[in-house]
Amino acid sequence: MKVNFFLFSLLFLVVLYGGNPANMRDLKVQAQMEKKNWHEEAFFGLHYDIHHNVNDTEVGGEMDVTALDARFYDSRRITWNLMPWLHRWGGEIRPIKPLPQLLQESALVLANGGNLFVYSKPQRNGHLVGWHQDLLAEMAKFAWQRQAICQHSKSVPQVALLHSKHHYYSTSNLPLFRTNMQRPLEGALMALLENHYHVDVLNEETLTRRMNEYNLIVVAEQTNLPLSIIEKLEEYVYNGGGLLVTGGFAAKDFGKILGVERIGDPKEGRYYLPADGGVIQFRSPVQFVQPTTAKSLVFLYSGQEVKTDVLDVPIATAATYGKGLVGAIHAPVFEFLNLNRYPRFRSFFRDILDAVAPKQLVELDALPCVEMTIRKKENKFIVHLLNRSSDHPFNNSTFVEGVPVVGPLHLRIEWPKRPTQVRLALDSDGLRWDWKDGTIDVKIASLHIHNAVVIE
To answer: Pick from 161, 156, 157: which is nearest to 218 by CA?
Structure first.
């Protein structure tokens, strides 16, 4: 097994070592790591239980996929890694990514508790290119600086996004690869993250076991759900949980608790949604419903005029069931969002979430490009902040040439007693905080690529 693993390491020439970059060009360093079982204990390892790659599939798409995969892998409760590629997929050319892009990808993996496994492609004669190794050294330095707040940390449950195996395997003919079946999940996750919710992604078995740890569960256009999981979700809401379901089949699958009656089958068409003082045009099958005990949250529009084009057709509803609250959007809006990242969609979902989501443990005021992840480690409560913006307009290259500094950021954290310490993990200044009436108020002047608020 040692020999096979070493050959695998040589094949990919994965070298992530925080010492002198010149040393990384000597494969003896890697061999010594093998002899010492370094990979079994190290933060940046050469082998872990789950492995996947991070590469460019579309503009910005690789980071969206990575955000979903990282949160799902982390729910499996075993060590895992995601593999940033040093180069962009480009046929025979394969240009090397800029360092800011590599650090963004690294930060996303690390902030979610993962380990790095970097793919560096050598020359055909086995030569390791010097400046490639210099980039790897910078990635290693970036990661080692974050080891104390990332390694062995655990997610703090807030919002759960269901990744149903029954939906995936019953609708995908390529179950080993990314398919269109993941689009609703990617869209839902981006809607939640851009509105600054902390999200875990779980399958049915894990969600059933841990359901009561979460204050909101999102079922984003997941079909073919077994009756057992539907009944568990109904029980969860009845006992006080929050649930948001979307899709044309939501009223059929969850009709018992949604408080609506279906009117026929979902109808394909061009529709308009109100958002942020205007409307969003989208084409999708919509399930028309008639509220019985539910409240209508948003109505469809027949055209672009906000004041005159409203229809008496609810697209989003909310109802109480037992002690809990359940909301529904009666169309596959998250799949549409994944394909069309209209800014007004973000506002539309924020209004829905404000109506159905319980108060969150951490509230963040920041630009939508700031992604928040909440973790804990020993006696530390850690709020990771990742800046996913780019200072160069996106085009077909998908390169992040630089990451602009954003700020200020404002966090409000529910905390029963005054904490001993509130600090930034990577800076000695730039943060001001106060505690009053069970809430920590944190103000951060600026954020570059990644930082974290640590509370003890």
So the answer is: 161
Residue 326 has phi, psi (to 5 degrees) of -125, 130
- Does 12 lie in the same domain as 46? yes
User: Which amino acid is present at 37?
Assistant: N
Same structural domain, 334 and 405: no
Domains in the chain, number: 3
Q: At what angle do helices 183-194 and 61-74 cross, to 10 degrees?
A: 90
Examine the domain organization and report whether 183 and 203 are in the same domain: yes
The residue among 239, 161, 235 whose CA lies nearest residue 203 is 161
Residue 356, both tokens: 């159905």
The domain boundary, picked from 151, 169, 204, lies at 151
Q: Are residues 41 and 184 in the same domain?
A: no
Q: Is 327 left (phi over 0), alpha (psi -120 to 50) or beta?
A: beta
Residue at 308: amino acid letter: T
Q: Are strands 216-220 and 242-246 parallel, antiparallel or unpaired?
A: parallel
Quickly tell me which residue has 């995969």 as its tokens: 69
Q: Cα–Cα distance between 171 and 168 in angstroms, integer? A: 6
The predicted-structure confidence for 210-264, as pLDDT tens digits, reads as follows 999 999 999 999 988 999 999 999 999 999 999 999 999 999 999 889 999 999 9
For 21-61, the pLDDT digits (tens) are 333 333 333 333 232 222 223 333 333 334 445 544 343 45
Q: Are residues 207 and 345 in the same domain?
A: yes
d(CA 170, CA 112): 29
Minimal CA–CA distance to 115: which of 156, 146, 158, 160? Answer: 146
The model's pTM? 0.86
